[in-house]
C-alpha cells in the first residue's frame, strides 16, 4: 500500500467535513432532490447482512437509491457483473484469518490430482485491518429489479415504518413528557421532553425527533454509560450530538422512516472542527452509534432468538459471505462440510477447523465486528455538569 495512503477513517472524516461545509451532508439534507431519502441502509443481497456503522456511513454517503452492495467476486458468483468503468467504494473490516496455499519446502504450491491448489486457514493472533471494494446494485448488470427485491424483503414485515417507530419507542420504556416547544433529554431526571405530536409538521417528523432524543437517552449510566458532559455549544456536547445523529441515521434507515437532525446549525461548525482535528474520532462515533442502534432496535435479542430457533449447522446450497468471498456448501457429511469459494476452490472442513467455525458464525450471526471495541474501557467519566442534551 502506498505510503501516501490515508487511513479510511481519515478519508471519511475529510469527506463528511467537506459535505458539511457545502451544506449537503446527511445531517443537513436528509432528503434528496428526487424526494427519496438521502440515506438508504446498505445490505448484502445474498446474505441479508448489514455492514458496520462506519462502513454503513461510507456506503450510505454515496447516495444510491438501491441498498444492495457486493464485492465484484460475490456479484460474479451470484451471476451479476460490474458495469464497464464503474468504480468500487472501499470499506474496511477486521480480518481474523487468511486462506493460504499449502507449499513445499522450496515454496511450490501443492495441488491435488485435479490440479486444484490445496489451502489451509491461518488464524491471526489479533484481528488485522483489511480493505475491500464494494459495488452498488446500480453499478451491476443482470441483477434483480429493485422493486422486486424490496417486495421480497418486506414480505414478512406487517408493520408500517410509523408503526415500527412507535413500537421501538414503546419497547424502550423511556419516560417521555410531552409539552413545551423544546425536544431534549434531561439526564438528571432521565426523561425525554417532546412537544406534542400536533406541534410537528407530521407524524414522521415527530418520531424522527423522538428517536434522536432516545439515542441520547441510551447514554444514561444505567444503560450504555456514555460521557455526556459539556455545556451547550461545547466540543464535548457536540461529540454526544454527533453520536446521536449518526445513530438516528442508522435507526431511521433500518425502520425506513428516515431521519431529521432538526436544529443542526448550532452543531455543524463543531462537527467540522472535530472531524478535522481528530479524524479518528469518527471511528469511536460510529462504534457508539452502532451500540445505540443495537440497543434500541433489539438486535442482540433478535440474534439470540434467531440462533435459538434454528439448528446450528450447514445445509447443501447455503451461500455464505465471509471476508472478501462467498462460500457455497456442496455437501455435508456427519459434521464435516464441503465448500466452494467464488474462485472455484473446494475444500472439506472439519468442525475443529477455524474456517468451519467462522462460516458457521457468519451464517447465523452475519455481522462485521469492530476492531478495538474491547480497548475502549480506559475512559474516565467525570461528573456531568449539564442536564439538557439534544436541544
Automatic annotation (TrEMBL):
Signal peptide: none annotated. Residues 367-391 are annotated as: Disordered. One of its GO terms (molecular function) is single-stranded DNA binding. Transmembrane segments: none annotated. Residues 10-104 form the N-terminal domain. It comes from Mucilaginibacter psychrotolerans. It holds the Pfam family ArdcN. This is DUF1738 domain-containing protein. Residues 163-285 form the Polyvalent protein metallopeptidase domain. Residues 373-383 have a biased composition (Acidic residues).
Amino acid at each position: 500500500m502506498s505510503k501516501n495512503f490515508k487511513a479510511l477513517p481519515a478519508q471519511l472524516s475529510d469527506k463528511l467535513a467537506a459535505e458539511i461545509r457545502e451544506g449537503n451532508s446527511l445531517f443537513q439534507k436528509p432528503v434528496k432532490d428526487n424526494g427519496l431519502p438521502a440515506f438508504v441502509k446498505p445490505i448484502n443481497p445474498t446474505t441479508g447482512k448489514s455492514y458496520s456503522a462506519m462502513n454503513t456511513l461510507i456506503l450510505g454517503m454515496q447516495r444510491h437509491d438501491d441498498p444492495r452492495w457486493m464485492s465484484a467476486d460475490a456479484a460474479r458468483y451470484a451471476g451479476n457483473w460490474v458495469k464497464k468503468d464503474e468504480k468500487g467504494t472501499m470499506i474496511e473490516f477486521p480480518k481474523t484469518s487468511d486462506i493460504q496455499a499449502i507449499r513445499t519446502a522450496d515454496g511450490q504450491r501443492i495441488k491435488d490430482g485435479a490440479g486444484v491448489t490445496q489451502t489451509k486457514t491461518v488464524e491471526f493472533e489479533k484481528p488485522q485491518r483489511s480493505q475491500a471494494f464494494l459495488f452498488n446494485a446500480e453499478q451491476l448488470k443482470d441483477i434483480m429489479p429493485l422493486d422486486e427485491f424490496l417486495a421480497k424483503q418486506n414480505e414478512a414485515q406487517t408493520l408500517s415504518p410509523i408503526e415500527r417507530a412507535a413500537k421501538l419507542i414503546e419497547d424502550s420504556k423511556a419516560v417521555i413528557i410531552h409539552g413545551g416547544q423544546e425536544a431534549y433529554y434531561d439526564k438528571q431526571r432521565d426523561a425525554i421532553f417532546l412537544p406534542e405530536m400536533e406541534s410537528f409538521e407530521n407524524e414522521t417528523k415527530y418520531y424522527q425527533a423522538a428517536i434522536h432524543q432516545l439515542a441520547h437517552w441510551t447514554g444514561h449510566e444505567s444503560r450504555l454509560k456514555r460521557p455526556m458532559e459539556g455545556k451547550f455549544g461545547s466540543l464535548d456536547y457536540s461529540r454526544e450530538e454527533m453520536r446521536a445523529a449518526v445513530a438516528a441515521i442508522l435507526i431511521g434507515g433500518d425502520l425506513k422512516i428516515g431521519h431529521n437532525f432538526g436544529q443542526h446549525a448550532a452543531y455543524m461548525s463543531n462537527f467540522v472542527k472535530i472531524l478535522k482535528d481528530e479524524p479518528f474520532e469518527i471511528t469511536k462515533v460510529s462504534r457508539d452509534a452502532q451500540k445505540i442502534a443495537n440497543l434500541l432496535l433489539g438486535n442482540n435479542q433478535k440474534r439470540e432468538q434467531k440462533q435459538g430457533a434454528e439448528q446450528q449447522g450447514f445445509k447443501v446450497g447455503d451461500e455464505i459471505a465471509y471476508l472478501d468471498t462467498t462460500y457455497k456448501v456442496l455437501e455435508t457429511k456427519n459434521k464435516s462440510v464441503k465448500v466452494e469459494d467464488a474462485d472455484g476452490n473446494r475444500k472439506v472442513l472439519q468442525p475443529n477447523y477455524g474456517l468451519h467455525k467462522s462460516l458457521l458464525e457468519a451464517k447465523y450471526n452475519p455481522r462485521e465486528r469492530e476492531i478495538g471495541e474491547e480497548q475502549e474501557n480506559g475512559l474516565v467519566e467525570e461528573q456531568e455538569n449539564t442536564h439538557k442534551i439534544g436541544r
